[in-house]
Design goal:
This protein is an alpha/beta fold. It has nine helices and six strands. Strands 3-2-1-4-5-6 form a six-stranded parallel β-sheet. Helix 9 links the parallel strand 4 and strand 5. Helix 8 crosses helix 9. The chain starts with 5 loop residues before the first strand and ends in a 10-residue tail after the last strand.
Amino acid sequence: MSQYKYLLFDADETLFDFGKTEAMGLANTFAEFGVEPTTEIIDEYHRYNKSLWRALERGEITKTELKKERFKHIIDMFNFKDADPVLMGERYVYHLGQGCYLLDGATEVVKELSKKYSLSIVTNGVAYVQHTRFDASGLKPYFEGLFISDEMGVQKPEKRFFDIVLETLGASKEECLVIGDSLSSDMKGAHNAGMHKCWFNRTGEPANVDFDIEYEIHNIEDLYQIL
């Protein structure tokens, strides 16, 4: 019998196929602004966007700054004329919200686990995007909580994020398992909060962290072997 009563799922790249959503969102956004999304532009966007999210997790920038700066960087670097980074960022967020793609097996696993556990989503994603996709995903009936950093005023990996989740659910940290793909936000956050961790390592990369991870899975169905 599992010791856990509450399963806390990250959203993107854990339940949702964010790679597919992102590709669609970028293509539609650049098309609106008359930009040909070359491989060089997309690669630079990915590199810089990733660095901004890491800075956000460290508390060095705000979500508003991230959404503006990632497109300002691309506009400046590739000398796009008459492109407004704020407007481009707003349109990108809109397009992301239209891309509801779940990873293979996510619906079936969530449905099955909801019969025995209380499920919640814990995400640093943009509130509009996460609400819109969650509502369209068909997953809503299986989840008790949807915790979004935008609405909480604090984000993973900060301990306070998970303290709020525990307070809201009326749960103890020993009853919870955090399931996510990110070492720097999901696993580090769970570590900071003293919770057990399940790393969804889809790529097979080494952990390279200075704390223990209780479980590692490579497919969402692997959760059945743990729970």
